[in-house]
Structure formats: structure tokens, C-alpha cells
Amino acid sequence: IYISGYAEYVDxxxxxxxxxxxxxxxxxxxxxxSTTITLDAGSYDYKFWVENKGEVAGFWIxxxxxxxxxxxxxxxxxxxxxxxxxxxxxxxxxELELPVSLDYVTTNGAVYSSTExxxxxxxDNPYVSLDGTKVIVSxxxxxxxxxxxxxxxxxxxxxxxxxxxxxxxxxxIYAHSAVEDRNLLNASSxxxxxxxxxxxxxxxxxxxQTTEVLSDGRTWMKVELxxxxxxxxxxxxxxxxxxxxxxxxxxxxxxxxxGTENVCYILDGYSDIYTSLEKAPKDRYVYIEYTRED
Length: 294
Fold this sequence. Notes:
It is built from no helices and 24 strands. The chain is an all-beta fold. Strands 8, 9, 11, 12, 15, 16, 19, 20, 23 and 24 form a ten-stranded mixed beta sheet that branches. Strands 2, 5, 6 and 7 form a four-stranded antiparallel beta sheet that branches. It is flat. The N and C termini lie far apart (71 Å).
């Protein structure tokens, strides 16, 4: 969080994003700029890049709310816990092998290497089982995450932490537009987000991978994705390119079908997502005939 009544633009840069100015642009609400980032255990340097209203040049500033800095004046944040357990995911119906040993980061940044690790579910789950360091997830699991308690032992000392595994599902998405110039791989893309807000899926743009003529005789754009198992996903069929919105459909929503292969059909000009080709409406055309009087 960065608070300023003068700034019109702020982004967060640090070790975690290779000091990129575009990775974590902060959203403003009532003069409070904020962003959310998931970090693995470790010590990270960071700063804010700020551009004030009416000023041409921007400037660096350390975090005013964090007194811990390094010799270069960068703010420092330490995330304690076991390294290597951030961003874990497992496709439903498959298995995930977890590390046998892990490095543990203390609250002051000290690292205990090669800590022997063991895992346990934080609560009973009939759809998830553990076999040593292997997590086995049923295809019918209705959850979006699995939470594990991690225990490590090093030189007689015991360390504990909690990690989460995002559960994912496969999606095959077809899209079609009756406007020929839009029904091309270089013309259209999908904007996707988690409408339920229960997963770590950030809004993103996905490009179609191929075109395919289906049994209805129409050419469809197609993409196969592995996405977090959100209760409700949002889609927009739009003009291709990040922040390019020359044309777009309405917001379209898909409620997850547990235990199924998710196949979706999106039509330009329609407000529903169809789960079978038979349900997808045919293209509509308007023919205009006129007689010219000379």
C-alpha cells in the first residue's frame, strides 16, 4: 500500500518482478494505491515508482510504512516459511509430488537449508489423500484449493508452516464470430478472470491457438487452457491485444461443472456461454433488398 494525495501513478518494483515497471501497477482508491502479490519464502528488496500530478519526471521512494532497508536504501520484506511452496497447483484427477526437503526462512531472514519435510492435511477431505510426499486429488473434488500443514526438522529444531495448492481444471474454449474479420487468430482473443474471487487467477488475456471447422460447418477459434477451479469464471471475447478494446462482447460467465471436462462455446453478439455445439445458435444474417428509382 502507498498513500498519497499527489500521485497519479504508482507501481511496485523489486526482486520479485526483476524491477519491472509493468508487472505490478497499483490501483488507486481514495488516494490509496494498492496491489496484491504472492511471494515465496525469502528476503526481497523493493521500492515504489511514483509519478505525481502535473510533474513530468517520476521518482523512486522506499516504503514509508516499512523501516527496514538495505545499504542501497531499498525497502526489505522477509516472508518466513518454507521456500519452494509458493504457486503450487494440481490438476484435478492427477497427483502432485512435493519436495522431500526444503529450505526454511526465519522471520529475520536466516535460512536453514535441507530441512526434512513432512505434510498433513489441515482438515479431512474425502477427495484428497496423502501418500508420503504425494498429494492425490480426485477428479470430482469440488474445492478450489487444498491446504497442507508442513513440518520440518533440522538439528533437533521443529519448524511449521501452512501452504496451499491451487486445484486446476482443463478448459477447451471455442469462439466464433459471424463477422469474418473477427473470426481470425490475429484478430481476436479472450479476456479471462475469476468472477468468484476465490482463486489467485489474475485478469489475463489468452490468445487462441488454432481454428477448427466443427460439425455445424462453421469455423471456430479454439484454445485449450488449464485454469484454477473457480466457482465462476468470467470471459470477454474481444479484439486481440492487451488493453485493446476496439470491439468486445458483453461479460460472459461460466459456472464450473465439477468432475467434467469443461467445453465452452462463445458466440460474438450473444450473452450466454454454451456447453454444447447443439445449443449454440446459428449465425444470423440480414438481407436488404431495395429498388432504385432512376
